[in-house]
Amino acid sequence: MSLIEEVIILPKDGKISDSVIRRLPRYYRFLGELLEEGITKISSGELSRRMKLTASQIRQDLNCFGGFGQQGYGYNVSELRNEIGGIIGIDKQIGTILVGAGNLGRAVALHLNFEKNGCRLLGVFDSNPDLTGVVLGKIKISHVSELEKFCKENKPGIAILCIPRDGAKELCDKLIELDIRSFWNFSHYDINLEYENIIVENVHLGDSLVTLTYRTNNQ
Predict the structure, then answer these.
(1) Against a cut of 0.70, is the pTM above it?
(2) What is the overall mean pLDDT for the chain?
């Protein structure tokens, strides 16, 4: 472990704030891009200039997990990226299923590098019998009627929902009964309002576009 760059100040309740957690993937991705550029070490000041964050913010974020870097040297890019990858749990490769093989679901299944993001896509499911057996990458689409058997045998930890909102509640009931507690939710159904003790990342593409529209109109 490198020398800590400054005094560590952990949250009083021991919990990491959501804003810090949401910056971790950006750190991980950005450090990977630095390695691709051949950069092996970087100061907190240079890192802050490149990422458009303050050096103090970067140090505070990293100090939540123990602090990294060496006084007068900065950060070893490869070591820091590996540390952050370990904090995120990239190497755990959580078993993941995707439900809904329409245009969006197919795009997610085919173009997202699951392994690079700490997941392993195990199966894809859809209610349309015409899609059963169609191959997406290396995975054949299965009918949703096979979902229960598949989950009991493979025990996935994450479900990606690329289905219409009106079918989401019934599906969530089933998946939670099958002990899935983490959802990447494109369905626009507010899972959080119905269930406790689950983890949800909601993706509202329309909301993101509306935010961009507002910022463009009010720049």
Answers:
(1) yes
(2) 89
